[in-house]
Amino acid sequence: MSKDLELEDLKKPSPSPSRIPQRTFLKFVLICIFLSTLWISNYIPLPIYHHEYSVCSESGSIYTVDEVTPQVECISIVGSRISYTGSSKELQGRLYRRAQAVSWLQRWLVSRLFSRVSHKISYVNSDAIIVPGLADAHAHIMINGFKMQLELDSCKSLAEVLEQTKAYIYSHPDIYNNKSQWIEGGGWDQTKWPETGFPHAADFDTDPLLRGRPIALHRVDAHASWVSTRVLEIMGDLPTKVKGGSIVRDSSGNPTGIFLDNAMSLIPVPEWTDEQMTTFFDTTMNLALSYGLTSIHDAGSSPKIIQFMKKQAEAGNIPMRLYIMGHVSSDEYWGSQIPRLIDYGKHGHLTIRSVKLVTDGALGSWGAALLEPYSDKPDTSGIMRSTPKTLFNLVKQFWKDGWQVNIHCIGDRANHVVLDIYQELIEMGHNETTTMIANTTGEGELMKANVTEWRPRIEHAQIMTMKDLRRTNELGIIASVQPTHATSDMWYAETRLGPNRIKGAYAYRTLLYGSPKHVIPLGSDFPVESVNPLLGFYAAVSRLSVDGTSPHGDGGWYASEALTRAQALKGMTLDAAYASFTEHELGSLTPGKKADFVILDRNIMQVPFKDILKTKVVATVVDGKVAYGAL
Ligand SMILES: [Zn+2]
């Protein structure tokens, strides 16, 4: 048999060069690829297999917000995650041991194939510190970009607002030449002006450039809009009453041009185009990164904006983590109008698993719903924008469908009503889900288990009765607060509320100390306040305005409610992560977590209060990659 084969083989023509057996040829090709890779890698940087590096502080000023190792000298990053935190000496030892563990041939091959795996260690300046990536637990991304078109925050009088609006028109030839084009902006605050009360539509008519143009300027808290006479003409007949809002009228019953809360939706402003949305979005993202934010909880996006964000996520255009609360102004259940997305998109940066509901207005426009009338305006107790029954049904259905519910409550009535709703539903949930929960947690933990699962939030939790402050904590409701609101409102809050109610207002330390999970997520509510999270940090720890003053002097306004620096930093990192179900991934510099961190040029944990405000961000790192500045 074998002989036959040999004979057969002899009869075959000898293989020509083009007919080399397949296996030999394959081997040859592989060797060629291997050799050329080695050769090319000397000239072309190959993709980095493991982006690996460490950042160290010789003074040990890396504040981890990890209670096991609160301060370290070095952090190491592999890919998008933190791989090590600890001392510089231990890090050097680890790297040395690792280097010894592999032979020179392995090292040479790996460095050739995967290119630059060498572990770079950079040192921050001696004054600089590193903290976890900062989060804003309550902000408005798109409205901020929108407002930045025409910002009126710095205006100290009505005349200044008019001047700024004119300057905006002069700098936009398309608007200058087209009198029918809408002019929108925001940030005005009549409490900062010498004039008393709200401005008037007729104020725009005092200037020939502004007269006859459709202008809508939103108040700093976005709970009031001031429109021009032209807008009132376009609107025509107005309803006499608006549920959950109001149209301000003069003594003869004519609208003055001020629309409050739900009445604002009557103003026929043009819809945002895709191009505008992209500008608004990018503007806010870039600004936020430059201030060290790596995560934002957006407090209310419409289905249209959510679709826009979804597209941005798919295209990889979201440079930080966004935790979006869906919002639709409707008393009917709208859970089906928004998609549920977790770590969605090219970089996994978009999460939508919560909704925002609104109970009342804001304090600055006397819209916060109070249990008793305003001390400085006894004819009103504020505005309830939803009825307790509507809110109850919405919360119940959202919880049933697995959405986290976050409710805007400023006044003590709003907070009281919402706590009633949460309490009733938690107790109902206790009964309804007994079997399901009992399997995993056992008796006695039932109510707590539900709250931990649902993580209900009250956004602002601004003015509460003493009893409700306690109830918030007993129920385990997350109070999501904005420290700059305390320092912005402190000049008039006590006049509005009187000496007793003020004791339960902006009570951050009370809320934190009683919180069963010891959490108080901090936010800015930008564009109501600045995007810079360090202003919130400063306000939380100092209870002072940026010029170092307060109605109670330089010791701070109701300073007993100030947070410590460590508490404030945790509020802006780990607590915000908890409020968005991500405490195991984000919020502290802990091995295994995402490598989101910020380098600040000075030690905000130690410098005098006033120096906190001078802090500059050296670098903002998201997923281990520099998103702003330089390492
Ligand atoms: Zn808000």
Give unreliable regions as ranges: 1-17, 41-49, 433-447
| Largest beta-sheet characterization | 8 strands, mixed
The small molecules bound here are:
zinc ion
Shape: globular
The average pLDDT is 90
Task: Give the count of helical stretches.
Answer: 23
Number of strands: 23
Our measurement of the CA-to-CA distance between the termini, rounded to an integer number of angstroms, reads 73 Å
Helix and strand composition category = alpha/beta
Give the helix proportion (percent range): 25-40%
Rounded Rg: 30 Å
Protein name: Amidohydrolase family-domain-containing protein
InterPro entries: Amidohydro_3, Metal-dep_hydrolase_composite, Metal_Hydrolase, YtcJ-like
How would you portray this structure in words?
The protein is an alpha/beta fold and 631 residues long. The protein is 36% helix and 19% strand. It contains 23 helices and 23 strands. The strands form five sheets. Strands 8, 14, 15, 16, 17, 18, 19 and 20 form an eight-stranded mixed beta sheet that branches. A five-stranded mixed beta sheet has the order 9-10-11-13-12. A hairpin with a 4-residue loop joins strand 10 (215-219) and strand 11 (224-227). The longest helix has 21 residues, at 412-432. It is globular, with a radius of gyration of 30 Å. The protein starts with a helix and ends with a strand. 46% of the residues are buried. The protein binds zinc ion (ZN). InterPro entries: Amidohydro_3, Metal-dep_hydrolase_composite, Metal_Hydrolase, YtcJ-like. Pfam families: Amidohydro_3. Residues 129-628 form the Amidohydrolase domain. This is Amidohydrolase family-domain-containing protein.
